[in-house]
Amino acid sequence: MAGLFLLRALHIFPRQYRGQAWLLLAAALLPWAGNFLYLSGLSPLAGLDLTPLCFALTGVVLALDLFYFKLLCLVPIARAKALEAMGDGVLVLDPQGLVVDANPAAGQLLGQPTLSLIGQPLPCPALQAALETADAAPCEVVVSGTRFTVLDVRLHRLHEGDLTLGRLMVLRDITEKRLAEAALFEANWALKARVEEVQALQAELHEQVVRDPLTGAFNRRHLEETAATRLAQGRMSAAALVLIDIDRFKEVNDRHGHATGDAVLQYLTALLQDSTRTDDIVCRIGGEEFVVLLPGTHAEEAVEAVERWRQRFSQVPPEAGLPFEALGFSAGITLFPLHGQHLQTLLEAADTALYAAKRGGCNRVCLAPLPNQSATVPAR
Prior knowledge:
Keywords: Membrane, Transmembrane, Transmembrane helix. The chain has 13 helices and eleven strands. The chain is of the alpha+beta class.
């Protein structure tokens, strides 16, 4: 019977055990061979029973196997020591899910003495649940015992052919890794929030830098940074630049006070912002002077737009809260690239057209002369 088990072991045992199995099988067969030779009369020594001699040889083979090949010594002890020294917890479970063996690390991870685990089901409900799900893939389990622990759980089936003998559960403590990841996530989130806060402050500061604090319109700096850049880079095939100056604004301040003058400036700014497109740029460049840049706008379109603004500004509605019914502004219009390809050139041409409107009686719009014309063209 032992010989049959050894023959079976040669087929299913790992390679490191097969040499020892061969020696054990040889030791077991020697007495059989001696007895067979004696009973069959094939013994080379007539009348001598070789069975006792073969038992002696069996002892020699077993001694060789025990002391030279380290039978039941080197590999099993080495494996046992390795299992005990492992930092990962190892649990051996029978088909019913009861623990039949455990290494010291498993006891430490589960917060229980190792011997108390033997013969018992898994002590943690989360591990019981993992027993049903972790066959397909590794999973993570949170164990709340003496301390918060996150375990990486891996299951390996122990089988012999198609017969499942049990399962091997390997537990790895990944608590520090997950806590470090959580701390890193929180640090990244805090850093992101701080960066967004700084960016918001920078945007707010930039708005304060490029906005006129009284009217909310862009200022000369924004005009020079944005409009000049767009013109220089050729990002507009055509554009109209309008320079506006409120007529007799000093009289408004003198008669009604600077608060009323500020309200007039705010009223005109709101009118221009309400009457222009998203891509248009409305700027207050100083005092009662405004510049409006109209990308993609030609002469007739620009004149019509500015005329609508002038007419609306000349008819102050009661809800505006101003102490008079009529206002007026003069405007000069230049065209890009007909009158120039740089902002300063366009401003100078618009200023010339503006003063032509002032000399013509104020509250009017003038278009700067085209290259083939000799005088400023009044739009009205």
